[in-house]
Amino acid sequence: MEREIRIGKEKYSMTSVMFNIINYLGFTVFTFICVYPFYYLIINSISANHLSANGSIMWLPKEIHFENYKQIIQLSGLGRAAFISVARTALGTLLTTIASGYLGFMFTQKKMWGRKFWYRFIVVTMYFNAGLIPIYLIMRNLQLTNTFWVYIIPLIVQPFNIILVKTYVESISPSLQEAAEIDGAGILTIFWKVIFPISKPILATIAIFSAVGQWNSFQDTLVFVTDQKLYSLQYLLYTYLNQANSLAMLMKNSGATGQNMQALAMQQTPTSVRMTISVIVVLPILFIYPIFQRYFVKGIMIGSVKG
């Protein structure tokens, strides 16, 4: 007979207790692996730069200062680039979420003309890509290159998001739509007043996917944009990362004369530049994600398996 262990008023088998211990240890290690890289970036960005460059900062920050952020924020064009990134993230996320919700809903409507064909046509695009050059030629012929809309229009329709919404809507009782139709509601009314409000979990999940993708994207700027006024924050910081050595030298020399000589701890190094820029890029998403987190698990589970 297997031995039992009493914890409070409950009794647990030895096997159950060992499983829980191993399970908690495993998730603790996994959580540490996920969290530590972000923690490492932050403590190195606020520690003495010469210690960070030497790899001396591993667990706790030393000689804390915020001069790195002050100098990075003062870089030329950073404010305008931040505005472009915020604008593309907000507008792109909004349009992608609405389009994914509406198309996913429409593909559940049996009376939609050519429903199966159009659904398969969109799904096929997940597996086939014409390549960079044809895509660039299309954007140029549509006069989207060197415009803000090159960040928005190509990403509005996302096949994977549509599949998630379609599966989610199919899990909703059809009696809700039937009742609305009996009351005389049209397709748009049914979508906005019936389906949209109860699809918040899956739409919040799509919003997270879209926001993270829009915020982190810099390849579209690299390929389609040459106007510096349209540079996104990520692309600008990407160029600074590639020029970390020269940028660190420029920052150090700009304040290295007379009474403005910086202390060794605050002198910029390539490592401090990279760490600070990485934190600036990652931090906004880390603040936004918890807002949608309560919808995320429910949305992705219900949207991935038909109930």
What would you say this structure looks like, in words?
The protein is an all-alpha fold and 307 residues long. It has two domains: 134 residues, no CATH class; 152 residues, MetI-like (MetI-like fold). 67% of the residues lie in helices and 3% in strands. The chain has 14 helices and two strands; from the N terminus they run ββαααααααααααααα. A two-stranded antiparallel sheet has the order 1-2. A hairpin with a 2-residue loop joins strand 1 and strand 2.
Which structural class is indicated by helix and strand composition? mainly alpha
Radius of gyration over alpha carbons?
26 Å
What is the CATH class of the largest domain?
A: Mainly Alpha
Major β-sheet profile: 2 strands, antiparallel
Uncertain residue ranges = 256-262, 303-307
Summed up, the domain count is 2
Q: What gap, in angstroms, lies between the N and C termini?
A: 40 Å
Listing every helix as H and every strand as E from the N terminus to the C terminus, the arrangement reads EEHHHHHHHHHHHHHH
Instruction: Summarize model confidence as the mean pLDDT.
Output: 79
Which shape, going by the Cα principal axes?
A: flat
Brief characterization of the structure:
The chain is mainly alpha-helical and 307 residues long. Helix content is 67%, strand content 3%. It folds into two domains: 4-75 and 243-304, no CATH class; 78-229, MetI-like (MetI-like fold, Orthogonal Bundle), CATH 1.10.3720.10.
